[in-house]
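Predict the holo structure. Ligand: adenosine-5'-triphosphate.
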Amino acid sequence: MSHLVLNGLSKSYGGVTAVQSLDLAVERGEFVSLLGPSGCGKTTTLQMIAGFVAVDRGNILLDGNDLVSVAPNKRGLGIVFQSYALFPHMTVAQNIAFGLEMRGIDKAERETRTLEAMALVGLKGFADRYPRRMSGGQQQRVALARALVIKPALLLLDEPLSNLDAKLREEMQSELRQIQRSIGTTTILVTHDQHEAMALSDRIVVMNHGRVEQVGAPDTVYGRPASAFVASFLGKTNVLRGTSDGHGKVSLGSLSLAMAGAASGPVQIAIRPERLAFAAVGAAGLDARVLSRVFQGTHWLLTAESAAGALTLMRHNDGHPVPAEGEAIRLSFAPADASLLREGAAG
Ligand SMILES: Nc1ncnc2c1ncn2[C@@H]1O[C@H](COP(=O)(O)OP(=O)(O)OP(=O)(O)O)[C@@H](O)[C@H]1O
């Protein structure tokens, strides 16, 4: 049985649909991110799991038990917010021990578990410090220790790293992942940052307009996006226009590709810039003309136009000549790197 199951979860605010019939199964110990643009419903989903927002329709099953009518403080969940939400008048140790005190855990066990949680998040020696005398990263560690000390059934993280600067955020991402792996707590992260979702997650749930667009491992949603929305939300991509003959063949400008599953008529194909290569001399390919080239240190970024649409491609700065603006090029790619996009919710 999956650890957490969301079944047809729905929520509207007045006339605004925030989450529409969301289904998701999360396995024990999994790290799952809800990823999407502002307003796509990810926070509302997390808040329904936490119990802070009432569910209109659907179930939230934790180990098979429906949480919908269980009070938030009885769900046994650990939650970390973007704003840390620490108690300013309490020391680090008091902040962390608070949840244990509320649960009536005796003093000796409180102390042991608080010290363990502080060690887990790298805060040994900070017990008597007050939050205002700590950096953002340290405060977020306190918030994480406070969520974990109760040994929650689920860890819910709502944009926990977005107040930190870029370098610290990256450090905290790998630490957070390590901590989560070491304790194995099933974790749901809300983020609008695709890099963060890809770095941390076992699976990513890409959301748009209150619905799930795609669920999959990071390399799957990045490399095999199901829709134009997913392709464009997870980094740079090329969406090329072609025509399918309905019998497994797609024409893209000067290129003919074997691609199963497309009905006859116009189709859209996504291919990442780093997966486009120059075709070998004499080989078939997609003819294009370079519009611009920009040097980026480790690589060049080229834009080009083709009969299948505008393109961006990357060339590693490996000493080989790079075509100039106006030059004709022929591009190729492995059919496995191209994704047939689903019709619908683009942009
Ligand atoms: N308390 C509320 N009252 C009215 N509408 C709300 C409320 N909370 C959220 N909404 C609306 O529901 C939709 C989903 O909001 P939600 O906060 O879940 O999205 P989000 O993806 O988490 O966005 P963000 O990253 O900006 O927090 C939005 O259209 C939002 O305006």
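The CA atoms of residues 177 and 253 lie 44 Å apart. Residues 13, 16, 18, 36, 38-44, 192 surround adenosine-5'-triphosphate (CB under 6 Å).
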